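Re-running the complex after MR caught last week's input typo. The corrected sequence lines follow. Everything else is unchanged.
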Amino acid sequence: MVEVAAAFVAWLGVSLVVLSDARRGLALGTLLAAAGLAGVALPEAGPAGALALVAGGAVAAARRFTAGPGGWGILPPGSTPRLILCVAGGLLALWVGLEVMTGEGAALRFAVMSGVGLAGARALSSADTSVAQTAFAVLALAVAAGAALGADAGVWPFLAGAGAAVAVTWAPGRVQRAA
Amino acid sequence: MLPESIELLALAAFALAIALVFMPDRSPRRRLALQGGAGLAGTAAVAAVPTFDLALLVLVLLAVFQAALEGRRPTAACLKAPGVAVALLALAAVFARVGGPELIHRFAAVGLGAGLAAALGLLPYLHVFDPEEPVTASPIGWLAFVGPVLAAVIVAGAQGLLPADAGAAFGAVLIGLGVVNMAWGSLAAWLTESNGAAWRYSFVADWGLALCGFGLTLADGRRAALLVLFTVVLGRLPLYLASRQAGKDRVVTERPVNLLVAAALAGSAPFAGFAARVLLLRGATQLFWPLALVLALVMLLWLPGSLRLGRSMGLPRGRQALGVALVLALNVAAGLYPLPLLAGARL
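Corrected-run output:
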C-alpha cells in the first residue's frame, strides 16, 4: 500500500513539473517526485539509496525555489495539452507496468516509466532554462530509481542520481554569444 | 572498461592534442584545452562506470556541462536531444529488465537504437546546429568527440541487457538507422547551402556507416565500425576544425591538397575509410547480400559531398598545413595496415 501511494506521489510530482512554469510549482514537483521515487525504490535501494534520492531532490527543489520565474505558474493558459500528456502518460505507464509487464515491483515500474517519460517530454518541450534544468533533475532521479529494477544495484546509482539532480539545478545557464 | 572504449578514448585524446598543437595562433587554445579536457574526462567516466544506469547519469552531467558553455543556442535547446536520449535509453533499460511478452524486449531494442541516435544527434533526432558556434558547445562535440565512446558503451550495454532475439532486433534497428543516416547525410552534405552544415551532415553520413557496422553483429561489422570511428575522430574532426578557419575567410580552393582531403573524406583507397567500407561490405555479404548491394550504392553518394568539403578546406598554411598532413598520413597508415588498431580493441 505504501508503495502504491509512493508511486502516485511520484507521478503527481513529475506531473507538477510538467504543468508548472514557475519556481514554486517546479520546486514542489521536484520534491514530490523525489519523495515518491525514493518510496518505491526503498525495498531494493535500501534506506541509504532512498535517503540519497530524497536528499538530492530536496536540494534540487531548494535551488529551484530560489531561482527561476517567480510564483507557482501551475496550469497556465494553453497548458491543456500538457495536462492531457500527464493523464494519458500516467494511464499508459499504469497499463504497461501492471498488465503487460510481469513480476514484482509494479509500483516501481510505473513510477520510473511515468517519471522518465514525462520528464523527458518536459525537457523536449521547454524553452526556459529553469524548466529544462528541473526536468533534467527529475529525469536523473527517475533514471537512478530505475536502477532498482536491475540486479544488485548497490547504493551508487542512487547517490549518482542525487548528485546529478543537484548539479543540474545548480549549473549556470548558457551565456549566449552573439553572431 | 571495454578495450574498444579505451582505444576510442585514446583516439579522442589524440584528436584534442592535434587540435591544440596545430590550430592557428589566433585561436583560443586555453579554452579549448579546458573544455576539451573536461569533455574527455566526462567521456572517460561514461566508459569507466560499471553499470548502464551510471553511464546514463554521467551522460546527463555531460549534457548539462555542454549546455553551460558559452555558445549561441539557448540552454533549453541544448538539453532537448540529450533529454530525449536519456529518457529513451532509461525506458529501454526498464523494458529490457522486466519480465513479460517477447514484444517488451523488442521495444527495448527499438528504444536503445533510438536513444543512441538521439544522443549522437543523428536522424531522426538531429540536434539544432549553428555553424558559427564554438565546436565544444556545438553538436559536433557529440558526433565526433563524445559519440564514439558513447556508442561503444551503449552497444555493449545493449548486448548485456537484451536477450538473443531482441539482440537481433537491435542489430536490425541499427542497420535501418544506419542506412537512413548514410543516405540522408551524404545527400545533404552535397546539396545543403552552407559549408558548415555540409560538414555536420558528413559526420551524420559517417555515423550511418558505423551504425551499420555495429548492427551487423559479425566480427567484420565491429571492425568496420571501429575503423569508421577512427576516421571520424582522427580524420573528419581535425579536418573540420581546419576548415572552420577557411570557412570564416570564405576561401574555396581547388588544389591537390583539396583533392587529397576529398579522397580521405570519401573513403577512397588507401585511406582508412576504404578499409572500413571493404569490411562493412564483406560483413553485409555474409549476413544478407542484398544489404551489401544497398550499402555499396549508398556509399557512392559520398563522392560529391566530399569534393565539396575538400574545396571548403581552403589552402592550409603554417602549422595547420602540418596538422592536415599528419591527419592524412595517419589515415593512410590505418588504411594500409589497420591490424594494430583492430588488435588494440581485441577485434
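None of the earlier attempt is carried over here. Chain B is about 80% helix and 0% strand. Chain B touches chain A at residues 51-54, 56-58, 60-61, 63-65, 67-80, 83-84, 86-88, 90-91, 93-94, 97-101, 104, 132-134, 137 (CB under 8 Å).
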